[in-house]
Design brief:
TIM Barrel, eight-stranded parallel β-sheet, 8 strands, EC 4.3.3.7, 4-hydroxy-tetrahydrodipicolinate synthase activity, Aldolase_TIM
Length: 309
């Protein structure tokens, strides 16, 4: 089952721009040490559009090997065409991953029949998959309405989960769960966990945020599941300033924070994202310091750096 906190792993790069397999192992170790319930790779937060097919395959193999069966791995398999998506799904199966996350290509639009035919085509070409239908907002996603999603789920039993991250995500989650067929195992929230409490209140079974606050998000999830709504809300409110900034700076913020935490050795980014200037960096560092007492997984050197600020 996919539930709880399943972060999307960033792609680490060396200073020369090449992928960094050793750093990917550190990211997985950090995720596991944080108590996550699964990991996702690659996704939007992995700068997936900047990765070659070979880089995706190599890093997914590293992730699977480093996870070593301790938690589920979800392989991102979205692509611009049905044929490419099928190829990514086969790569996932070859790596030992049976759960894939797929967004309908923007090129087919949001037509109900076209989207259903796409997912049916994937399921028929690669039997045995469990699919997470990712519904991202425009312009990167197709912004599918709940009726279209329900039509796909009913027609394609291989779709076992929906990752709903349109804006606002809450009403869509409510609509999907109200009429979900029995084989749909759950709806997972996205959007960087910026709306996680509303998503959980509406019945979402988990969230797929970025990685940098994984231990805080796990603590929030556990508090919610234990019925401690006050603790969950407190953790959410303290995380929110960083998550708001993350919406602007995306993986640059993720990697900057992970360097602060001693997990990454640099914050190299391939994807076109806003640069961090001294003012934005200071803003991020200030809010990071505000939540440092909640971060339980931190190498000693990183902890000393936080204490010295």
């Amino acid at each position: 089952m996919l539930r709880g906190i399943l972060p999307v792993l960033p792609t680490p790069f060396r200073p020369d721009g090449a992928i960094d397999e050793a750093a990917m192992r550190r990211l997985v170790a950090f995720a596991l040490g944080s108590g996550v319930d699964g990991v996702v790779f690659p996704g939007f937060a992995s700068e997936v559009e900047s990765l070659s097919g070979e880089e995706r395959r190599r890093l997914l193999a590293v992730v699977v090997d480093a996870v070593a069966g301790q938690v589920p791995v979800v392989a991102g398999a979205s692509a611009a065409s049905l044929e490419e998506t099928i190829a990514h799904c086969r790569d996932a199966l070859a790596a030992g991953v049976g759960s894939v996350m797929i967004q309908a290509p923007r090129g087919i639009g949001a037509d109900r029949e076209a989207v259903t035919a796409f997912f049916r085509g994937v399921a028929e070409a690669v039997p045995g998959l469990e699919i997470v239908l990712q519904n991202a907002p425009a312009p990167r996603g197709s912004d599918l309405d709940p009726r279209t999603i329900l039509a796909v789920v009913r027609d394609v039993p291989a779709v076992r989960w929906v990752k709903e991250e349109t804006l606002p995500s809450g009403p869509a989650i409510t609509a999907i769960l109200a009429e979900a067929p029995a084989h749909l195992a759950g709806v997972i929230g996205g959007g960087g966990a910026r709306y996680i409490l509303d998503e959980y209140a509406r019945g979402a079974c988990g969230a797929m945020p970025a990685l940098e606050l994984a231990d805080l998000h796990v603590a929030l999830d556990r508090a919610w599941q234990a019925g401690d709504r006050i603790r969950a809300r407190t953790l959410y409110m303290r995380s929110l300033p960083l998550l708001v900034l993350q919406a602007l700076y995306r993986m640059r913020l993720t990697k900057h924070v992970l360097t602060r935490r001693g997990v990454l050795h640099n914050a190299e980014v391939r994807a076109p994202t806003p640069e961090l200037d001294p003012w934005s960096t200071a803003d991020i560092d200030g809010w990071f310091d505000e939540v440092a007492d909640l971060l339980t997984v931190m190498p000693p050197a990183a902890a000393e750096a936080v204490g010295a600020r």
